[in-house]
Here is the input.
Amino acid sequence: MVGMLQALGERTSRLPLVGAGHSRRRTGLLIAVAAAFPLLVPNNYVLAICVEASLYIMLASGMEIVVGYTGLIDLGYIAFYAIGAYSSALLATHYGISFWLLLPVGAILAGLAGALLGFPVLRMRADYLAVVTLGFGEIIRLSVRNLDWLTGGPNGVVGVPAANFFGIDLVEPMQQYYLVLPATVLILIAVARLGNSRLGRAWMCIRDNEIAAEAVGINLVTTKLLAFGLGATCAGLAGVMFAAILSVVTPDSFSVWESVTVLIIVLIGGSGRLPGVFVGVAAMIVLPEALRGLQDYRFIVFGIVLIGMMIYRPQGLWPNKVRRYARGGGAADHLGGRGATRVTRPGAATGPLLQVRNLTKHFGGLAAVDDLDFVIEAGRVTALIGPNGAGKSTVFNLITGFTRPDRGEILFKGRPIHHWRPSRIVDAGIARTFQSIRLFGTMSVIENVMAGCHSRSRASVLGIVFRTPRQQAEERAIIANSFRQLEFVGLGNLAYTEAKNLSYGDQRRLEIARALATQPELLILDEPAAGMNDRERLDLTQLIRQIVDLGITVLLVEHTMPLIMGLADQIVVLNYGRRIAQGAPETIRNDSEVIEAYLGVEDDSLSA
Ligand code: ADP
Ligand code: MG
Here is the structure.
């Protein structure tokens, strides 16, 4: 017993979140109050409202994944509730299948439907997404309404058996309360854990900046499908409960208004803030009941409250708290792939790290990159220079998979990578920053770097939900590694600042820290000194030297000549997409074609 307590204490003290023990106790207290509630308030009417509210909390938790975490709009969400409710109602009435078996069945069916809907809508912009999901919801509702032979049409399925618990039919509000309470608690815990994991961070990255998300190795397709699928799973579970509690399922319960209600619940609480669903449900479900006495006026009151919120607190009512992480205690070897910072390069001796051959990319009639060749040796610094519009950023986009070449090939360690998606290229060991800074603006500085560890971590949905020791160890390693990277670039004291509030210079350094967190062998920097003052440029030069010392190969675009001359081993000069010169800095400085095309024109940049 004492041993168990000690083990528990030790586990708590090693939780990756600061204050996790405290919030655990608070959660425990809340659950205890919720469990005792029916004994304190044995009122059937109140308990029935609690049951209804619980169903909405489950629904809103799932919607939180899709809308709150991932930033996708889903106006057809209630269809998954319908799928859970109808599939279980039909299987229970026709085949007498037990409620307990129907729970996973309904959840899985809804989850699959969610992933299925996800496929065609993955690449849609928000406005189209709203319309298409709205249409999907209506298709499901009209289908169940019109497939009379299967679903009973407008009359629905009646006489759905109640959940049976060791011979007792759970039909009383108090019994149903104790049926939905554990399910609600479990869903809330699961969604909260998902939110605070590599997967949850990946969702938020997608919400904040899709392109940057790809650049840290997040696979947009699978990650978004998981969001749709898991969100729908929650709705499916709630649907099975709904059918067993109401004992009748009709199409009218699944109108668009229901999707909108759940959406408003999420928005009132604060999108992406899970505890906010309590506030949302209180406002949307409990408050209208409480105002029932005012019957005719309640929608007016309700409308005024909503409008007031839009004006005074559009970000939602629940406060946004920055998550704090316990640094230290993480061993880097829990992150897959290579060691935490120092790169070991197996097989680096055999041939160049990167080869670009006959690379060509047209935009309309314009050849942005034209039959380009160059080679990068491991451990060296290569600078790509040339006037604005020469095609430098396009070359970077081609190497990192954001643009497909028309012709030519790119070999990384001998393997062709030009048809790979960006996330796979990150996995292989190429990381980048952007000319126009792309951070995850609403996430904290440390979380931006943690997102960079995505491709080097493995935890699965189940590992996250059940908090397996491996997942916990990996999470600690991510935190420790991220703090190390932050300190390496000199941002250790700004870990809990929102990324978008940093100065330009710091934002650029954060982008570098995030790229380093992916443990690259080749680091590609697109104008890293842009917007920096002289002092910051000096620091940056120093930083790049340190990165090279770690054994990381660097490819960069820069306009500041002293910076390039001091850093680069090799310079490749582009003009109109073509390579006009290549060689050591001294050679390039004296090349007449280069001077004419670039250096001579921008005299000031030479002396800057
Ligand atoms: P650099 O980074 O050297 O300043 P870029 O690679 O950004 O140059 O651009 C090279 C040329 O390709 C420019 O003329 C630019 O307008 C064009 N270009 C770049 N990206 C696109 C795009 N996505 N669509 C159309 N034209 C593009
Ligand atoms: Mg550019």
Q: What stands out?
A: DSSP finds 25 helices and 14 strands in the chain. The longest helix spans residues 220-246. Residues 363, 366, 368, 386, 388-394 surround adenosine-5'-diphosphate (ligand 1) (CB under 6 Å).
